[in-house]
Amino acid sequence: MRPPDEVEPPIVVKVGGSLLTWPELSERLARWLEAEGASRLVLVAGGGQAADLVRILDETHRLGDEPAHRLALHALDFTAEVLARLVSGSRVVHRLADLPSAWNAGSRPILAPRVFLEEVDERRADRLAFSWEVTSDSIAARVAVELRATRLILLKSTSTAAATRLEAARAGLVDPYFPVASEAVDRVEIVDLRDPESPQRVLMKGKDSGDVWTA
Question: Are 171 and 129 in contact (CB under 8 A)?
Fold first, then answer.
């Protein structure tokens, strides 16, 4: 049992954008959150079709890397608001400093990441690049690193046979930068939310397959 004065480490949960248009998302996510049981969760919504629209506009009009990046961040704030309508007891927050008040109030915080990225991440020497090779997967990883979260859980629309983060990137399950962005995160898990029978898989660090093991 955790000592009463020891704070439970946060867990970052990224809800894949492809799940946002799934009619069963609200019910299935509620069941998953109840089963997970952790009190200090931070939800991050993927961009889904909102981010896809920005990508199409960028390809059509050649908006440029930084303008497209800024628009994509607004898309992520939008999908955070959408997810908040689907998760009972949730609250959208814009800064990591707002998380404790949400937890203390018994709310599930959903991070709209634009302010965090513009005010915190972009001041880092190793800031996330303005590139379509950096998506909400790497953004969720950067949030996990900043919070010193012990776990990063990626809720996806599909399962994976990948054993490492690099293999998952090569398979297109996460973005190409994710293995680097998540390097400081001890435990990365992938869940196929659409299939309740699918095991919760752990993506190991490193370049070789090794053994696939489940949570």
Answer: no
Task: Enumerate domains of the chain plus CATH numbers.
Answer: 11-203 (3.40.1160.10)
Residues 6+ apart with CB under 8 A from 3: none
Tens place of pLDDT for every residue, the chain, 215 residues?
444 445 788 999 999 999 999 999 999 999 999 999 888 999 999 999 999 999 999 999 999 999 999 999 999 999 999 999 999 999 999 999 999 999 999 999 999 999 999 999 999 999 999 999 999 999 999 999 999 998 999 999 998 889 999 999 999 999 999 999 999 999 999 999 999 888 889 999 975 433 332 33
Distance CA 75, CA 48 (A): 9
**In the numeric block, which tokens belong to residue 87?**
């998760």
Distances (CA, A) of 155 to 18, 31, 44, 174: 10, 13, 10, 11
First-last CA distance in the chain: 20
Q: Which token pair is 162?
A: 């990948």
**Strand order across the beta sheet in which 11-15 lies:** 90-93, 108-111, 41-45, 11-15, 151-156, 187-192, 201-203
